[in-house]
Amino acid sequence: MGFWKTRGNAVPVLMGVILVIVIVFPRQGRGQEIQINEIAFEEWNLSDGEEWGNGWVEIKNISDDTLSTHGFSLTLNNAPPWQFPDTLLGINEYLLVWLSGKDRNSPGRTLHASFTITEERNAFTIRDDSRNLTLDSVSVAEKMYWDESRIRFPENSNSWYNSNLRTPGYQNPSPGPWKRVS
Asked: In the predicted model, is pLDDT for residue 2 greater than 80?
């Protein structure tokens, strides 16, 4: 009891120090928070609003919080990094990026990376450039058929399958008898 009487300002000071730590150093030790979830080389059943046939990559927020993509980039092999717009992704929410080479990253609009996917250019990396941290990387070693996508299943795992059930923006289905590729 004597501690609180003689140090009446201790609790407010301690709370102030904790608040400063939380604000100045927000979750610096975070682990993976975003991942590549599904990839398609070509898309003939879904248009990007302008044309058919472009590939796409689906990104998923796997963290426990809403996540800002500010400072995140996507690369494909040695292509210059494409910067994500400052977009908020809710928990388990998906973001679709077309691999059209059109380089469009306006928030709230259809996103287009500055590169296209080919059989030779097929290794994706997502980085948080503000923390110099690689968040996820995936290599697609073999070309898929036009009606397939490469899915992570179960989601949040490191297992990849070819699937003919594409689900851009939605949870990946069970791949069933499809071939596991990694």
From this structure: no
> In 3-state terms, what secondary structure has residue 72?
strand
- d(Cα 85, Cα 128) in Å, to the nearest integer? 12
Report CA-CA distances (Å) from 145 to 44, 63, 110, 141.
Answer: 11, 32, 24, 13
Q: Which CATH superfamily is domain 33-163 in?
A: Lamin Tail domain (2.60.40.1260)
CB 54, CB 99: distance < 8 Å: yes
Q: What is the pLDDT of residues 35-68, one digit of tens each?
A: 999 988 876 667 667 777 788 899 999 999 999 9
The residue count for the chain: 182
What order do you get walking across the sheet with 72-76 strand by strand?
A: 82-83, 72-76, 123-128, 133-139
Domain spans in the chain, listed from the N-terminal domain onward: 33-163
pLDDT: which is higher, 140 or 16: 140
| For residues 74-81, average pLDDT | 89
Nearest-angstrom CA–CA distance, 153 and 135: 18
- Pick the more confident residue, 70 or 19: 70
Q: What DSSP assignment string belongs to 156-181? A: TSS-EEEES---TTSPPPP-TTPPB-
Write out the H or E segment, with its range, that includes residue 152.
Answer: strand 149-152
What are the structure tokens assigned to 113, written together? 């990376």
